[in-house]
Amino acid sequence: MRIDCQSHIFPNAYIEILAQNPHPPQVIRSGSEAVVTYGDVQTFRLQNEAYDPKRKLEDMDDAGVDMALLSTNIPPPCMLAPELGHRGAQAINDTIAELVDTYPDRFAGLACLPWQNPDEAITEIERVKPLGFRGIMLYSHIGGKSVDSPQFEPIYAHAETLQMPIVMHPTVPTWGEAIKDHWMIGMMGLQVDNSFALLRLILSGILERHPDLQLVMPHVGGILPYMSGRIDHQTEVLGRARDNITQPPSAYLQRVYFDTVSPSTQALQYAYEFSGANRLLFGTDHPWVDMPRFVRLIEEMLIPEADKARIFSENAIELFDLN
Question: For the whole model, what pTM was predicted?
Fold first, then answer.
């Protein structure tokens, strides 16, 4: 069995709410075309055909993927004006719930939240949990605020209590202006920014204070596995950033699940050696990828077949309670 833990949709109802946002990111319409703009930092055209659920199912069938956990990528509702955040999250989650109801054996849901309004975010968790949502999404910043800001800790605590895994996802960095040329935002900026977000959750003590909180980091951990030795040296040898943690940062990082969305066999092998087979989750980042390629990358790894089975499905079944 193969379960894709990173697969995206972009509901039309959410596009309409993005079009009402008074500041970037927002949707600008020109005839039948819709463009997402982050001001002069980045733009991209929304391609409805790419997000078509029937196309997703066809691509899954072609690649031999049995199930996908659905979420919305960027821009997330936590980037919207406060009065629009909850509406945006509900629009996304309602669409995902409908798809899961229609295709219960093929899709499961990861909920978006209005993180910028913590009380509303907790209300939305309570609303979607009975609908069968398997986790919640967190992005690399929340409307420009750091993910470790104290106001958001009640959301982490609530997710821990309800055993709702948090799945991280990059969004355009607040410092995107500095790297907007040469398409460096997509090449590196997204992964670097998401890595800083996870490092904040570690160094701020959020993972220390919430030991049962489950986190998923996409794209084989961003840059953190490769920097782990240097980070530990900073805290354990030089004594820096130790105020909120009692263990080396690598100890918390090895609690985190990584998905396998990387076109690099070397990166996949390093993630396997760093985390072990029990902390890797198969993913594709559909619809922006050649899905069969990401299947082949796992199949061709020189690891035991039992470990491939854990990566392809068994870890996801346990983490997201997909039995």
Answer: 0.96
